[in-house]
Amino acid sequence: MNIIILLACLFAFHSTCYSQSVWNAKRSSWLSIDAKERNMIENYIDGYSTYLDKARTELTSTKELITMLNKEGFALFTNSSQIKTGAKLIFNNRDRALIAVTIGSEPITKGSRLIGAHHDSPRIDIKARPLYEQDGFALLQTIYYGGIKKYQWVNIPLMISGRVDTKDGKTISIEIGRNPKDPILIIPDAAPHVDSPLRKREYTGVMEGEEMDPIIGTIPDQKNSIINTVMNTLTEMYAITEEDLVSAELNITPAGSPRDIGLDRSLIGSYGQDDRACSYVAITSLMELNKTPLYTAMAYIVDNEETGNINNTGAASSFLNTVYGIIAEAQHAQSFNENLTRKALSLAKVISADANDGISPLFPGLSEKTNASRLGFGPSIKRYGRSFDANSEFTAWIRNVLDTKSIPWQTASYKVETGGGGTIGGQMSKEDMEVIDIGIPLLSMHSPFEIASKIDIWNLNRFFTEFYMAQ
Hints:
Elements: H1 2-11, H2 15-18, H3 35-54, H4 58-71, E1 75-76, E2 88-93, E3 97-102, E4 112-118, E5 123-134, E6 137-145, E7 158-165, E8 171-176, E9 215-217, H5 226-238, E10 248-254, E11 259-261, E12 267-270, H6 273-287, E13 296-302, H7 319-332, H8 338-346, E14 348-353, E15 356-357, E16 380-382, H9 392-404, E17 410-412, H10 425-429, E18 434-439, E19 441-443, E20 450-453, H11 454-469
Parallel strand pairs: 1-2, 4-13, 4-14, 14-18, 15-19, 16-17
Antiparallel strand pairs: 2-3, 3-13, 5-6, 5-10, 6-9, 7-8, 7-10, 11-12, 12-20, 16-18, 19-20
């Protein structure tokens, strides 16, 4: 009889037997902490929330991350004489991407530990000639950036930020709407009393791309021009002209601040957690190292992932290779050649860190539950299939780092033939680096208000710190 029961549990899809799976036995990470650790989580999330509130775009994120790094003794790289064991350096790529480095005791050609993440997020950008008038309103012509559900951006408070570069070499930073006393922008919706012609639109087409234009003013000047009023205001505030908007990077993002979610305050909601969550954790984990690592530790924060890693600040650029070459050359002096850079890249162990979709309580059928990740159950090792996965030996090495320090973890795979996502990992794999995709699950990804579990962010920080030091 015992043999029959054993065989039934091994081969039958009975719920009683299935419930004994090691994965079904996993419990929420909240059940494994005490009051002291809960306070540590809240303190860490306080810093994270402050960062999210300021870092609305890759420009402001780079600024905030460099400020944080400077406070912990990291210096901007200026020359190769700075590259010494234990040195803490920042390689700044055009104020939109960066690599923070702690030089290890072994040369970089013996190996390195790198965590790569992107800090751009879906948003709305303004066009080169944005201002126009329509029925008593001045509006901005826009084009959305990254994958968004356009209807989610309607009738919510929006802010505008970025930079304007003028012909005479000046750079003007602009930020309007983040401060609660600032005015905001808004994309107006149609009233239900008159919108019957629009009701046949389907889901993501509820709003069309050319309808995503926020109101920026309504008062005309003496020449009956609202555009003149708007531009006069901008000129008074920032000393710019309408033509200066051609050489501007101005982004429209949600104006709200991060907030705790749930009566237990277990979740945090905010714009931009994909992927500033991993960016922030990659940087703070590096800052928290209390001794010099054996292998050089690096946090690689890039732009333009949401549009395909393009441009000279995205992961497809040569920025990372250049930094590896600079370090390798400084450490090998007269014996340096390009092959040493290639060797350093090939011996790097890399985490491509990015958020992933978690199981939704309202739409659980969109996930294949046995392989999907859940909020509150730890960082996710991503297994995509179709040759997009890390090799088994590196995956096992990562598991050992996690389990040695009792850090909760899970896996994440998308439901077959229903969707998917990407990270910067492919760009680094092309350089012969050993790469694995890991992140944390979010709800409402790419929306103006994404949701994460505080304990997942904290456990990701614990893991990244151990990864940087791992041998």
